[in-house]
Amino acid sequence: MGRLGIGTLLLALGLAWIVPARAQEPARQEPVQQETVRVVATFSILGDLVRQVGGSRVAVTTLVGPNGDAHSFVPAPADAQAVAAARLVVVNGLGFEGWIDRLIKASGTKAKVVVAAKGIVPIEEDDDGHGPDHGHSHAADPHAWQNVANTRTYVANIRDGLASADPEGRAAYQANATAYLAQLDALDAEVRKAVAGIPEARRRIVTTHDAFGYFARAYGLRFVAPQGVSSQSEATARDVAAIVRQVRRDRIPAVFLENISDPRLMQQIAREGGAKAGGRVFSDALSEPGGPAPTYLEMMRHNVREFVAALGG
Ligand code: ZN
Predict the structure, then answer these.
(1) Residue-wise pLDDT tens digits, 153-188
(2) Cα 143 to middle of ligand 1, angstroms
(3) Ligand 1 centroid – CA 141 distance (Å)
């Protein structure tokens, strides 16, 4: 690895972040008591949602851990073992986990599989100038959880999947889901209120990793793709120069990179573009426990705080 994928570059109006792509931790397995339902969730955000709904009845193993990049994840034998031992596997769907079908098949698991994004109307990724090697190679934008309304659907699908895998727990899952959905409603209202406080002219973010498309559409931020940048190849000097030009031309106040382990590139773009390097937001993974975004609710609140701090409000 160690590639500086331009597809993982993120430039934001007054925003900045680095989510280390390679800080993937080994699959985390919680102690399993008797009768506990073993659930595998493909990545950390889903893992949190499963814990919220499953409560004490479930033991959740997360394949792509905090700060991990599910796009570039390569399953290890331990992951196949976790899937094999699971009663339920929860995946995002929408092409997010390109490796999951093979993993499930190779594991020989009898687990039920829940697609959390089932029922969501996906945003089709644009192909203007990026072509087939645009960051995610699938037509649908998989980052649906960035709209809290979609996360309601995730929670409902997880609740139903858990009840199907563990019928005795149905009432508990129902109660947990209902309580959590109320928290999502409060979160959604908070996000709307926060974005409403950003001056309309500044509600603009430049990004190449299209992780916030659902957020943009739901909450009224506009995302502008940098020009002249291909996404899967390494960041060439020409790519960097194109980004720098756009940062200067659009007077982007701060530059942010996502999932890039080498902060020097960000610093170079910020320096040459006359922008500053700012905070850190989370798109595809939670932070480590004790970090700024250890749960979905905290992740969304943290990101919105960063948006508001950078864009003004
Ligand atoms: Zn992503």
Answers:
(1) 999 999 999 999 999 999 999 999 999 999 999 999
(2) 6
(3) 9
Q: Which residue positions in the chain have pLDDT lower than 50?
A: 1-24, 33, 128-138, 227-233, 259-261
Whole-number Å distance, alpha carbon 95 to ligand 1 midpoint, is 11
Whole-structure pTM value = 0.80
- Ligand 1 centroid – CA 32 distance (Å): 31
Find the 296 Cα to ligand 1 centroid distance in Å. 15
Q: Which domains does the chain have, with CATH numbers?
A: 37-183 (3.40.50.1980), 198-311 (3.40.50.1980)
Which of 139, 94, 136 shows the shortest CA–CA distance to 118? 94
pLDDT for 133: 44
User: Which residues lie at CB < 5 A from ion ligand 1?
Assistant: 211, 284
Q: What whole-number distance in Å separates Cα of residue 40 and Cα of residue 90?
A: 6
Ligand 1 centroid, distance to 137 Cα (angstroms): 11
What amino acid occupies position 294? P
Contact 27, 82 (CB under 8 A): yes
Spacing, Cα 237 to ligand 1 middle (Å): 24
d(C-alpha 38, C-alpha 111), whole Å:
10
